[in-house]
From TrEMBL:
<dbReference type="Pfam" id="PF00005">
    <property type="entry name" value="ABC_tran"/>
</dbReference>
<comment type="similarity">
    <text>Belongs to the ABC transporter superfamily.</text>
</comment>
<keyword id="KW-0547">Nucleotide-binding</keyword>
<dbReference type="InterPro" id="IPR005892">
    <property type="entry name" value="Gly-betaine_transp_ATP-bd"/>
</dbReference>
<dbReference type="GO" id="GO:0016887">
    <property type="term" value="F:ATP hydrolysis activity"/>
</dbReference>
<dbReference type="InterPro" id="IPR027417">
    <property type="entry name" value="P-loop_NTPase"/>
</dbReference>
<dbReference type="InterPro" id="IPR051921">
    <property type="entry name" value="ABC_osmolyte_uptake_ATP-bind"/>
</dbReference>
<protein>
    <submittedName>
        <fullName>Glycine/betaine ABC transporter ATP-binding protein</fullName>
    </submittedName>
</protein>
<feature type="domain" description="ABC transporter">
    <location>
        <begin position="5"/>
        <end position="264"/>
    </location>
</feature>
<keyword id="KW-0129">CBS domain</keyword>
<dbReference type="InterPro" id="IPR003439">
    <property type="entry name" value="ABC_transporter-like_ATP-bd"/>
</dbReference>
<keyword id="KW-0067">ATP-binding</keyword>
<dbReference type="GO" id="GO:0006970">
    <property type="term" value="P:response to osmotic stress"/>
</dbReference>
<dbReference type="InterPro" id="IPR017871">
    <property type="entry name" value="ABC_transporter-like_CS"/>
</dbReference>
<dbReference type="GO" id="GO:0005524">
    <property type="term" value="F:ATP binding"/>
</dbReference>
<keyword id="KW-0813">Transport</keyword>
<dbReference type="GO" id="GO:0031460">
    <property type="term" value="P:glycine betaine transport"/>
</dbReference>
Length: 358
């Protein structure tokens, strides 16, 4: 099946003779080598696919190249080398007019700093993308109001941006992207300017919307916990390169290199992992026959600990058809929470909570 979005060996180089710089990188030069000549390789040989209905998170520290990468995905920046394919169409081959039409109708962006017009009402801000498309006023106001309601802002249509909190202003930005019914949402550090509690609320809002809308989303963040919470898959960037792509479980349990391993060392695994990530997929076959409590593949790790504490045998994991797909021995739970020195945090048998060292 064709992916909705695909990046093929993307490079973005700023400075003199960028094409020559790409060739140097392909032959083994690194960022520092180029920097000495006044050239910056912002993105180096980035390739990935984003499936329809997927939240694909690009995560990295400041200067890793993630925002530059995002801007190549909708043609705001032209790649020095490589291609971007959207529904199989090569964006790098489109004219400026074709790109503007595509961005106005099929690709929307949600920015970090809201980007609301202070002289426009909440409704008119949400309807702005439709106005650019030339949609009649009555229709664009109807669609804007529907998008605002989806984002929890029903009743605020006539308010002004400065009457809203930061979180509410970001909801208007999200509603503006949704109102156009774009196929692809690009979200550039969209929640990072918000206070922690509001930020988590916006993450909840996005996940709730995604259950029904099933948009294709590329989400940029420097926050690993946010990436783990939102991403169906995550691409980790360092110095312009994608160093690992995978699910949150893949990255937590199988880091590709020492950099990724050090990056994830402070993540609370119990908030990310599920039964499917830690179960033994070759059970004996009789674990589900005892009539005891069982788990589902998406049962959170913390619930597995509590369940394991009540049982005297491995936890059976059953799929939606009640077929046994795996088991989770208690020692597996302990091992997953072990640190790099071999010490491990155990599940307390009395309450199933993570309480001490094994």
């Amino acid at each position: 099946m064709q992916p909705r979005l695909e990046a093929e060996h993307l490079f973005k180089v700023f400075g003199r003779r960028p094409d020559e710089a790409v060739e140097r990188v392909r032959k083994g030069a690194d960022r520092d080598d180029l920097r000495g000549d006044g050239t910056t390789a912002a993105v180096i040989d980035a390739s990935f696919r984003v499936e329809e209905g997927e939240i694909f998170v690009v995560m990295g520290l400041s200067g890793s190249g993630k925002s530059t990468l995002l801007r190549m995905l909708n043609g705001l920046l032209e790649p020095t080398a490589g291609r971007v394919l959207f529904d199989g169409r090569d964006l790098t081959a489109l004219t400026d007019r074709e790109l503007r039409k595509l961005r106005s109708e099929r690709i929307s962006m949600v920015f970090q700093h809201f980007a609301l017009f202070p002289h426009r009402s909440v409704r008119d801000n949400a309807a702005y993308g439709l106005e650019v498309q030339g949609v009649p006023r009555a229709e664009r106001e109807r669609r804007a109001d529907e998008a605002l309601a989806l984002c929890g802002l029903a009743g605020w249509e006539k308010a002004w941006p400065d009457e809203l909190s930061g979180g509410m202003q970001q909801r208007v930005g999200l509603a503006r992207a949704l109102a156009t019914d774009a196929d692809l949402l690009l979200m550039d550090e969209s929640f990072s300017a918000l206070d922690p509690l509001i930020r988590r609320d916006m993450q909840d809002q996005l996940l709730e919307l995604q259950k029904t809308l099933r948009k294709t989303i590329v989400f940029i963040t420097h926050d690993l916990n946010e990436a783990m919470r939102l991403g169906d898959r995550i691409a980790v960037m360092r110095d312009g390169r994608i160093v690992q792509t995978g699910t949150a479980e893949d990255i937590l349990l199988r880091p590709a290199n020492d950099y990724v391993a050090s990056f994830i060392q402070d993540v609370d695994r119990s908030r990310v992992l599920t039964a499917a990530a830690v179960m033994d997929t070759e059970p004996r076959g009789d674990e589900a026959d005892c009539g005891c409590e069982t788990a589902a593949p998406d049962t959170p790790f913390t619930e597995l600990c509590a369940l394991s504490a009540r049982l005297t045998h491995p936890v059976a994991v059953l799929d939606a058809g009640r077929t046994l797909v795996g088991v989770v021995p208690r020692q597996r739970l302990v091992g997953v929470l072990g640190d790099e020195h071999g010490e491990a945090t155990a599940c307390d048998r009395d309450g199933g909570k993570v309480t001490g060292r094994a």
